[in-house]
Amino acid sequence: MKTSKKGYVIKRGSYLYLQLNHKGTRKLKAIKDDTGQSVTTKEDAEKYRQDTADEIIKELTGTGNIPLDEIYNTYKEYLPIYRKKKGRKHIDAPESISIAPATQYLNKTALDRFLKFLKEKSKASQDTGDITPALAKSFFASLRKEGLKESTFNRYLMGLRNIFDVLPQTSKDNPNPFKTIDQATPADVKEDTTKKQRFEVEELKTISEKAKERKDWVYPAIVIGYATGFRLGDVLNLKWKHIDQEGFITKYETRKNRKEVEQYRPELLLMLAEWKESFKDGVQEDSYIFPVQAQQYKKDRSAPVKIFQKFLEKDCGIITREIANGNDGNPIKDKDGNPVYGQTIKGFHSFRVSNATYGKLSGQAIDEIKHRLGHSDEKTTKGYIQETLAERKKKLIEDHKPVKLLDAFGVETKGTVIDITPASELDELKKRLKSALELIESAEISVDTKVKLVAILNGTGKEESA
Hints:
Blueprint: E1 8-12, E2 15-22, E3 25-30, H1 42-47, H2 49-61, H3 71-86, H4 101-121, H5 133-145, H6 150-166, H7 186-192, H8 201-214, H9 218-228, H10 232-236, E4 248-253, E5 260-264, H11 269-276, H12 291-299, H13 302-315, E6 321-323, E7 341-344, H14 349-361, H15 366-373, H16 378-384, H17 389-399, E8 413-414, E9 417-418, H18 423-442, H19 447-458
Antiparallel strand pairs: 1-2, 2-3, 4-5, 6-7, 8-9
């Protein structure tokens, strides 16, 4: 029969058995279905294989509990078996396991934080048998107390659930301790999510200048990111074949929503040609534009993100995170009284927001921006468009309605207009107005035009002859 990394399925007579080696001890056990009957088909053997393996582990170890420092290694060991039982969960997961490598890494991050909590708060805990639902709830209660955002709360919860689902000791008699904890609701996550801010024009100039000085992947990556509105993952996963010689980006599927995008970006061609020349051995059409960073991103999505955030903070001097607030609404401070910075408000995703904002400012239609960003809902696109300072000033001027001041202030008001202009300035304005009227009178323009200009300068709204 076919072998796997975890034991052998062996046929003896009409029945199928699982032979498993665990820490130097070998054991053979009949594979049985839910009714307790020995299975006879390969399909049933694969279906009940993990259950049999779990039973063997329990019999060999006595309790089936796993020491805390062996949880992650056991988790990785059992992922292939879990894959056969549950199927493939992520589209970019390898054939051997159900989840993507990046998700596996995130799960480890959650586990490491939980184990640190146990070391500090539950020193008596030695193995998985000591991890109770009450202890799991205590851990997540501590995260909330720290002001952890709801989306991260859910990520930690789902990561730990997945790990304990995969572990062989989890069963109906020994349920997953994290299944009793409720996820944050979509409404809570949305309310707690801080939107990335766009880059100001001066910040974009600084980023461009500093990126050019690096002479590495950062400059071409940010140019592509800003021009296309792509997320960092989509930029790093671009291949040369996706951009033709005319500047068309075609047959490229974005990672998050799996939509095939089409854009025309001829402005990228010169920059890409220069970047291509940096590869001494040349490039293949099917190779990544950023090969090193693409591999980094596959193994650990945070690696290129950290590099870029450090670039923004250290090289460009841009504040990328907001001051964190506790559940009481007050800023959180460290032991020295310094503010603790929380959620990231400026990062590579800010190029996406900037693309939408400045695209709208340059006259592009919402539908055009929506298509470029790959949004399904126009509301999502509008959420990306942030007013610039110039737009806010213009709106304030348009909406401005002067307020009459009280006589006690000593300021004379005329109607709704506040007249607080010094006399000296009024005299100067009158002189300028008189000069403008004289200039209009001597100009070689039609009488009708003169009448209109004079009316505007006088502010009367009436057509008066010069």
